[in-house]
């Protein structure tokens, strides 16, 4: 939470004028508090000073060197000058050069000691002697001992108009606005003590300018805990609020047989149970808020259809919101033919609905004459746009709910009065976890699959199978089938950010050793969707290969998905954005690259994209990871096909944090209502559990947060007013 001074605009600071404020704005920083929360993305480990003789060629290193020669200027070509001098330590001498920085000539004086930080080039001469050179290293004057300089130097995200030095300076200035009282804190003292968390002031200061790895780790731990804690508190709290209202319209006519008679199959026992639970809710004058959870393909849509039928029979309108156009289209295509047979009017409203058509739908939704009005509208978040006004909205269904923010969901609900809400989740979340994540939503579980589902044969292979895999692609596409290939990364660059220093992700929390030096990560190279699509295109010149990833515009993504759906694309390479719930029955092979990167539940979701039609389907998990645990984890996919069991296993193996992260294919980190700056569900599972437990027990003793006004205002800000958290 921002305290008083932290809410002041950055322009209040003496070094921030209009231009800088604008540049900061591009980083999302408008208030002083935002600057305090502009966490470094990495740290340069300048405190780890090496001798020249220990320096590795091409590595960024900190060195402590004495200036040995007077810097000499040379003009190498027009507009390009070179400053050159030598510096030494006990193990060797290095040649140091700077381009176009003549002003440095007077800075380096003979005999002075500097801490240099930069990439060291080390060349072996024929004589056997090593020659060292550094090009434009960062240089800090050592007044007495090198330890006086900060050992860990933050690296901030930048934008044009800002430099590292400037941001560092502004942040340290912003830190002066922290509350003077060192004990002021947002987290209750008891919770801090129990979890061994430092104070808020300590954490915010040390995340930027730590004196040692241990302080940094403690700071990070505190800030992560805080993110999880507020998240849990907010979720649980808003869940409570949701179910308190009364005055919903009761659905007393709720015979769904007209619908079920139209279906070419009969409902499974689990579907009937879920529908009965929904019916019981909708008969009450307390609005329903129910979460419907079930494995991929278990048939949740028809349960939603049943609920919508009940609402319409009772004189209400119903809305079904899907996270993507392609899903909305799919639902419309499935449901409209059924409902129209029952004389129920259904409309589709998405971003691509033509303006004239939109106006017609708007008019028919607000029509008070039940004969003329649209009964059911299916769409995307276009449903929450201002023009949409219902005359009698009684039920809101959101599909694949994790894609929507709390704000979006309630925005649609707010278009009616005390509407019934049904939330469907694609992920088979274990009950215990669902209760935590979704606060006080009631839960219906579909734990049974429709009969006759084919099993998707699953294989775990390594790189040596590449040729055989290509042969398999050839065979299946030759028979007219389609293939998904999923990769974890988008562009090469994303994973190659090593030069910046120690990435924030690598800073351990609460660990007493420095994790960075303990263990070098040895993950196999990541396949990037874009590059991989290119490779496959070359390898299969006769096949149509396309890619889709999260950084593409929604319309572009939809266009690609649509043409895959239409069978115009043979191989679709994608990141996990391939839409949850998308149904392309002709797809029969799912290849997951770097499979060790995915959670089991996520792999299960991905596998659920195939085996939806008549074609015999396969899932191939490609992994070169040598870790034994990764291997064992992937192997469970070969024998486990029940989403709930997989979820339990995932939970047991990696803790809830990890599970939640992978459960939502888009990743909670990016989803609308939850953005963690530091917390990572994948690695901080234990902390998440702790924060969750504490948040719930706090709410248990203070359900309205009466005695914690600061927490109340904080979650109000994060969850309601500002849906961007
Ligand atoms: P999900 O729960 O993943 O949203 P869907 O509702 O899309 O699953 O259903 C998947 C498929 O299963 C659809 O093609 C649907 O028609 C079919 N289906 C649903 N219920 C049954 C059932 N009881 N028997 C047979 N097929 C069913
Ligand atoms: Mg679905």
Describe the structure.
This protein is 36% helix and 18% strand. The chain has 725 residues and is α/β, with parallel strands linked by helices. Among the domains are: 47-149, Nucleic acid-binding proteins (OB fold (Dihydrolipoamide Acetyltransferase, E2P), Beta Barrel), CATH 2.40.50; 257-446, 3-Layer(aba) Sandwich (Rossmann fold); 457-640, P-loop containing nucleotide triphosphate hydrolases (Rossmann fold, 3-Layer(aba) Sandwich), CATH 3.40.50. A hairpin with a 5-residue loop joins strand 7 (113-124) and strand 8 (130-135). Helix 8 (269-282) runs parallel beside helix 9, helix 19 (600-607) packs across helix 21 (643-663) and helix 21 (643-663) packs across helix 22. The longest helix is centred in the first third of the chain and has 30 residues, at 213-242. The radius of gyration is 29 Å and the shape is globular. The two termini are 12 Å apart. Mean pLDDT is 83; it is low at 491-498, 510-523, 661-674 and 720-725. Magnesium ion binds at residues 300-301, 399, 581.
Name the CATH architecture of the domain at 257-446.
3-Layer(aba) Sandwich
Attached small molecules:
adenosine-5'-diphosphate, magnesium ion
Topology, number of strands: 24
Parts with pLDDT < 50 across at least 5 consecutive residues: 491-498, 510-523, 661-674, 720-725
- Largest sheet data: 7 strands, parallel
Q: Give the averaged pLDDT, no decimals.
A: 83
Shape type? globular
Helix content: 25-40%
Terminal Cα span = 12 Å
Which range does the strand content fall in? 15-25%
Number of helices: 23
Sheet/helix structural class: alpha/beta
Sheet with the most strands: spatial strand order? 13-14-12-15-16-11-17
The CATH homologous superfamily of the domain at 257-446 is named P-loop containing nucleotide triphosphate hydrolases
Radius of gyration from CA coordinates: 29 Å
CATH level 1 name of the domain at 257-446 = Alpha Beta
CATH-defined topology of the domain at 257-446: Rossmann fold
